[in-house]
Amino acid sequence: MTGLYTLLQINQLNNTAENYFPIGVQIIFAIGFVATMIGLSALVGPKRKTSDKLENFSSGIASHGNARQPMAVKYFLIAILFVLFDVEVIFFYPYAVNFKFLGWAGFWEIVLFVVLFLIGFIYIIKKGALQWED
Amino acid sequence: MNAIIFSVIGGVVMMFTGIITQQKKAIRNVAIIALIILLLANIFDTYGILSIHIGTHGMLNFQKFGLYFNTLAYAATLLFILISGADVTQIGEGKHAAEFFALIFFSLSGIAIITSYNSLLLLFLGIEIMSIPLYILTGGDKRNLKSNEASLKYFLMGSFSTGILLMGIALMYGAHGGFEISAMKPSAVSNEYGILDPLGLVLVFIAIAFKVSAAPFHFWTPDVYDGSPSVFTSFMATIIKAAGFIAFIRLFDNKYVELGLSWRIILPLVIIATLLVGNITAIFQQSVKRMMAYSSIAQAGFMLFAVFAENDMAKEGILIYTVAYSVATIGIFAVLEKMEDISLAGYNGLAKKHPLLAATNTIFLLSLTGIPLTAGFFAKYYMLLSVIKYGGSTVTWLVIVAVIFAAISAYYYFRVIQAMYFKTGNPEVRSYNKGFCFMLVILAAITILIGIFPTIILNWFYF
Amino acid sequence: MIPFLLILVPLIGGLISFLLKEDRAAKSWSLLIALITLAISLSGIYFFNNADALTLDWPWMPALGTSFNLHMDGMSSMLTLLTAIGLPVIFVAIYKNNYAKPGNFYAGMLLTQAGMMGVFVAADALVFYFFWELALIPAYFLASNWGGEKRVAATFKFFVYTFVGSLLMLIGIFYLYFQTPGNHSFSIDAFYHLHLKTSQQYFFFWLFFIAFAIKMPIFPFHTWQPDAYEQASTGVTMLLSALMVKMGVYATIRWLVPVFPQATNYFSMLIIILSVIGMLYTSLIAIRQDDVKRVIAYSSIAHIGLMCAAIFAQKQAGWNGVMVQMFNHGIVVLGLWIVADAIEQQIGTRKLSEMGGMAQKAPELALLFVIMALANVALPLTNSFIGEFLMFNGLFQYNIVIAIFALITIILTAVYTLNTVQKIFYGELVSTTNNAIDAGLNVRLILWVLVIVIFFFGIYPEPMIHLTNDTVNALLAK
Lengths: 134, 463, 478
Fold this sequence. Notes:
Chain B: This is NADH-quinone oxidoreductase subunit N. Chain B: Belongs to the complex I subunit 2 family. Chain B: GO terms for molecular function: NADH dehydrogenase (quinone) (non-electrogenic) activity; NADH dehydrogenase (ubiquinone) activity; quinone binding. The complex is a heterotrimer. Chain A is mainly α. Chain A is built from 6 helices and no strands. Chain A has one domain (2-126): Up-down Bundle (Methane Monooxygenase Hydroxylase, Chain G, domain 1). Chain A is flat and about 65 Å long. The two termini of chain A are 41 Å apart. Chain C has 2 domains: 1-259, no CATH class; 269-478, no CATH class. Chain C has a two-stranded antiparallel sheet with strand order 1-2. Chain C is globular. Chains in contact: A-B, B-C. The B-C interface holds B 366, 371-373, 377, 381, 384-385, 388-389, 392-393, 396, 399-400, 403-404, 406-407, 410-411, 414, 418, 421-423, 453-455, 458 and C 60-61, 63, 129-130, 133-134, 137, 141, 144-145, 151-152, 156, 159-160, 163-164, 167-168, 170-171, 174-175, 177-178, 200, 203.
């Protein structure tokens, strides 16, 4: 707990508007660059509009049917579980960066975190959420 | 800290109980044992025995009031599970009994955070931890369309209010440069940001008002309470709602000074609107469950008096109100759960066929009406007394409005009593066992005991 | 200890009565309890009339300045005696009637009695409020569960009226509580020693008065009463009209006039005029009624109106009259209801237009009813005479014009009472009364007892005045 709390406060120093100037410049540049490139390719590139070209690309095979069909709920389940664990893993990054600063206290806290994490993992396995076949 | 830790552990234990066994009785017993351990852990914590300390850098501030409220909320949950636990295990084809209990435990951990928060971030976390399990519980009856509708509505509206809450917190952070409510001194805010602070506070107020279903943020309540399985409605309408008021009190204990007079105008308007909407609409309901949903709005109006008065008496009052209202509502819903037909006509003639159900139900209804010798009287008593203590003759009009609505509430509560006792009919009741009757009698006994000696609750508070 | 026993005995007796399923058991048990209560009440007047026995002060919620404080002075003794007499009288009178679920019926009666006893002896505002409501709840169930076709609606009207009134009173009590000095207190002494500003008195006076006016009832708050009395079963009606209305009168004397003296003076004219209007109005309505129960109901409003007027006239004689009349009105009204019930039980109707000539078939009942009727008109020698005489005396001292208007009601009372007697008992026999016989032994017995009481206090009212004189002096001095 100590560690996490410190992380929240670490970047509160020198919190003035000027500090954000480079970021602003970068955002403007990034948006400008993308816009320019897309605009240029649209202007410069050749345009031949045929009905085949407007088709969705499906490996050369003519597409058929509607894509909006009910999907098995398993896909969603996997997707949600993936996002969940993915986000949890993100918490390791700040820990890794501040590894020395947080010391043993931080270590035990991250162990606790991993244990909770594992409990959740065991739970979903036991519940059969990852079983693909019924 | 005990309450938070043990409730989370309890939740995890319940999750795995569901994997180990599918026996409903076993699951229910594990839940009861876990809840008793949680209750004891919290009581020990209140008196400083065996309490676990974890440095939270002032984000949580454990005070007796919050911890004692936890005790009451957990005790109410225990009663709830003892009387309705069997029904919980039946919801949704009975496959997810353990998960439901786990979700209830997680919700309780949210309550533990809400009752002790000092940082607005923790308020946010607490409210979310408390609410998210409820979204699932509301939709617990998976094959029932009404339950699904209720769940979706609750979730959408709830997430909307969460957004408002975050906005409010952000504005207050902007004004104060910190999240800790105890450090938020109105004088410290420079004029430049002067408007941000009260604005943020109003947004937070709106978000919490949503949670306690105060008008005009109550629109979700009837549909959600009506659609969700009755047992979960009972849980939501009692323990969760009361926790919302604790969030209110903790926040405005420190903060209401800033709003000054305007606060004294906004809040009475909200209170009157809540009482008006709840009471007047409840009159026209034909379904007892829906009537109880509106009645819970009306009761919220009364509980808001504690926020308005903001003195010690109000704090004591909200504790008594919580107990009185929770016990009575849990009892009414427990009986309702046994009824095949939950419309008013379904209760016709209940007293002839099932005198015990009718008699205890009458006591609960009288308690909600606020008749002396029941806990409900002292709940209302403390609310009114605290308001008069706060404002003297300047708030008499508000109190008069409140009692007029209390009288109106008698109308719809007594309709149920009239149906049970003075109308003839053939009510169909699901089978219930001796244990259920015993618990009903216990609840009624608690109601009457507190109605005679309300101080037994408060003595423990000061002990 | 006496006041506590007066509450406790009917309370416990009532709770036990819930368990009695058998008709005879419930009847005998409740009669026994009622007689024990009567004995306690009498012993409180004649044997244990010292301060120790008549006062009780147990801590209840010390932090809030309220204690379980009971005290009996003369007025309390008189009213508890009336209540204690009333219940056995009712029980004997309805002994032959059959009620569904008798255990619950008699339990309700006894619980109501416990509540009323509490009201009459409470010396703490919160305790008073507690019992005030507690008397209402069993009465509500009694009147809703046993009685006429429209009883549920009529009783609910009664309940809502009273409930609104008592909630308003609750606000008043809270407000006064915060006016008491120091740590605040609900005790009646603290309320008596308040020094309220005039403007406060003018406002909070009404919060209390409306509650009491609904209970009594005073015009224009009386509309619940005829319906409720008509629809409730007669046993309950007796309880309501002979005993429960006295709660309103008692509370006005005990909790209103001494606490708000200036407001009482200020509004007395208004309230007396309202009372007198009510008296005239209800008497006129009573003349036109066809239902015996409604006649008695309206008559009861008129009599209570006179009591209210006499209270607000605030004269020694008038107050003495109120005290005497509270008791005597209870006795007379009980008698009237008992006769009405006996007639209804026999011939199955309450319509005056369907009766006639019953004196030929039931001479003893006719004689008894005539005595009751004369007492209702307040003829000399009957107990009501002295009370009404004193009350009119007080009213004359207050304002002669109003007193004259009030006197008109005596004539009107005579008109409708004698009219009723005539229609029921004299004239030609009709189909309904053809097979009538005299009332049962229990009814006649209890009516004779009442007649003795009527004549006793009609000739020798001194004990009653003596009992309550101290209270009158003490309260009027405030």
